[in-house]
Specification:
alpha/beta; OB fold (Dihydrolipoamide Acetyltransferase, E2P); Purple Acid Phosphatase, chain A, domain 2; 3 domains; 6-stranded mixed β-sheet; 30% helix
Amino acid sequence: MNEEILDLVKERGLLLEKDIFDLLNNFNNTALAKNFLESLEKVSGQKIITSTLLTKNFEYVQNIVNDLPGETKSSVEKIFVKMGLSLEIKKESEIKNHEHVISKQRYQIFYAESNDGKKIEVKDFVNHFRSRYQQLQKILVQREGLQNLTSINKIAGNRQRITIIGIVVEKRVTKNKNLIIKFEDLTGEINTLAKAGTECFAKAAELQLDDVVAVKASGNNDLLFIYDIVYPDAILLEKTKFKEDICIAFLSDVHAGSNKHLGKEFERFVQWLNSDNELAKKIKYLFFVGDNVDGIGVFPGQERTLDIINLKDQYDLLGSYLEKIPERITMFMCPGQHDSVRVAEPQPIIDNHYGAALHKIPNLVLVSNPAMVKFIEDDKEFKVLMYHGASIHSFINEIEELRLMKAHSCPAKVVRHMLKRRHLAPSHSSVVYVPGAEFDPLVISEVPNVMCTGEVHRTDIENYNGVLIITGSCWQSRTDFEEKIGNIPDPCKVPILNLKTSELKILDFSGGEE
């Protein structure tokens, strides 16, 4: 066992703490040990595997260990306890000497599966949309009022009033300005008609290709006449409030390395976090929602817009800011299109090559894009869904309501549509993506308390069915590209949410004033 582990360590160029090596030997199964080590390297992006790394990826490690067979699981858990870690908070007798460690485990991270290294075939896209349909179908069948729910192949030839759950395959306008929409489920497909001037026409008009919805209609197996459309929708019935008086701050689009980067303003924010300000001292968590550096080669001629032309140096600059943030604050950072990861979503965590400076910061947790973070207090959960927001532009281009209101200036209106559809990028052409054979990672499977995005460089706040929407500001002044397309950024704004009172404040660090 020892020799096989050592061979794997040498082969992958890893460096292990002695405690980690002892832990792997307690797996009593070489294949399981190798899988654990390879998975941890993959999710962390690090070659140096330490006990601190286990703590930072607590939820991921916990899920792996929970799947181990009985004796192996028990043996591994005992090693964790000896290391000062625990995967089972309720086992007080085993961990009473490690309460200081347990008290830090107040959040869980749910990474998006990124399918790194897997060869993609045509069947993967078929399975991806089949899985998406099934995920959203499960959400829709829980909605009230879906009478006579039936599959498409069961629709008879006589006129009837039914409900189907389908995915939008085709959409076109007739000479009479009616809409013909073709829906498909796992059993077949059918044409439906939304008549111009009817109440349901507006709902039908905003449907995007690949949306999954419930359709209330009447007709037969030749044609159905729509009278209502029901979206999966995100609805949060109760607010979650914590007893502890703590706050979360939200940032995005730092763009370190750009010649438009507002470094002095960002340093002003960091200084404020280290001050005796009462609000600053309450902040326990920070979210960085993508485009943390400006990147290299993201668009033609980008080198002319950079102060730092080396990607590693850009991350070094970012790291120099973050290492000054108090260790009492836990930071969560997902990538965006400008970061050192693939553009295709879901995006994996920022790597340990270019982003090595970030991996050295103990209170920084790197996550995928998208990712869900759950904060836990007793039996309460407060869920934050973070997504950089590449699909925002597609939503605006495809939905007339958003186009007319020029939604780049009010991006929270766009996020409403994501929550309504329970999907971050529903159309095949919305974003570049990697298909998930078993499930679609861009489906919003759980309704969050907060959904935060970046991308548009403007802070915007809305409440949608109980879900708080926060779109991020930026730390970059207006670029030449933004001038061309007419986008006006609103930099240096930091929304801060109190988990006890639900009070939201937005601070402006462009001039150092609240």
